[in-house]
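Q: Convert this sequence to structure tokens.
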Amino acid sequence: MLHAIYRWLDRNLLELGREMRLSYLPPLMVYCAAGVSGLTGIVGTFFVKDYLGLSAAFLAALGFWAGIPWALKMPIGHLVDLLWRYKAGLVYLGATLIAASLLVMIGLIGNPDAMRAVMPIEAWFVLSVLLSPVGYVMQDAVADAMTVEAVPRLDARGEPIPPEAVRLMHTTMQMLGRVAIIGGTVLVSLANVVMFQGSEALPEVEKVSIYLRIYELALIIPLLSVSGVLLGGFLKRREAKRLAALGRSRADIDRLLHDPEEKTTPNGWILGGSAVFVALTITVGLSGIEYGQEIIFAASFTIIGFMISRLLRELSPEAARTLLGTVIIIFAFRALPGPGAGASWWMIDELGFDQSFLSRLDLITSALTLAGLFLFRRFMAEKSIAQIVIFLTVTTTALSLPIIGMFHGLHEWTAAHTGGVVDARFIAIANTALESPLGQVSMVPMLAWIANSAPPHLKATFFAVMASFTNLALSASQLGTKYLNQLYTIAREVKDAATGAITTPADYGELGALLVTVTVIALMLPLAAILFTRLAGLRSA
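A:
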């Protein structure tokens, strides 16, 4: 028994330590910076609420503009491939923009009068919000491609590493990338808990002091990403010395370390398609026309699908079939609609889940998602995406049943038979503990396959286009959620702020049917996608 436990620990945890390479650290440091970026989220929310007179409509429009840089990830990814030798410069530029955004907020909080003398506080805030995402998308595009470069193709003797071993290393690299991002969010959650502990009783001046310290602490974010690039440069110089000692010429060393196996040429379809994609998103998004979301989604799906068809030509027929089957399955799995805000309102109003309890659930989710990446490491490396999605589909369907049960009083029955121990909060925590480790399991194999199969001269381009496609699936999920909430009407209680009179009564009567519908769709849609790929003769990674 002990031997079996040790063998499992060795295969899923200890082996990861043995497979860890110093070359993995540079992209991991850039990814960790992205995870830590949420450090200022709470502070930013309170700053807007307490010190800026911006309307909800204006903030929504600002959020739209802040999301535009992520639509630019496709051309930025292609730019990374075109400027591969000089990719560090893009990280430096991104870090500069992030630092500038943070310094603007430090000035607004620490010395608002001096900032107001230059231009209005609201204008400074808008500038800060728009600078940050541009910096992060630049760094993310570079980090994606760096993960491919980090995995060696030759061993210490110069012999090719077997494909199975290379695939495992790519899976390890991509898993560690998710670990770095999620680990950053866990650190952020803990930091906010510590720094805001007891802050509700502090005078406003001391609260502002905490806000300022958090933004000053956030300056570690650009330093972390820049440090990753500097480490990458150091490792390349060290490798150059090793190759020189083996008798390689300077030209040969330069080719091996800095140039892809095949030169990248500007792809007019990618650049042109990206330009159309961004222009259409901005035009329709700002027009306010009816069904604008649907128009943007349909056009985006068409454009990105067309660009994927162009990228398929860069692969062998077998690899192209695998990529196509993989994206269909992943899209269906990530496009699943959710119950929407109504389920959260019901938990707050009917189950008594307060802010403190929900924040602890968030921390549990982040921590256990991180643990799940280690727990399922071998599973992700050894199973196909179709097998993984079938497992996740069946498991998440089963785990959705307790929430449906609580709508019908399951928690009242369990509490009555356990002396109040197994109440609604107990069930929620247990359900979260079981479901959280599954959060990132479906994405790691796909990222590993892209890293393993993308042409060397189009690494960043493949990651960027696939990221756009999987993010498009999340847009489909949001549209599906909207449609279901139009079909099943759910309302929370709304009171008049001045009189306290109830203007809209709570109505959760249709929530049960909504939860059942969401669960059935979540079970059927991924399985149907897998069946379709099999009938179409496609494979999955």
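The CA atoms of residues 346 and 352 lie 9 Å apart.
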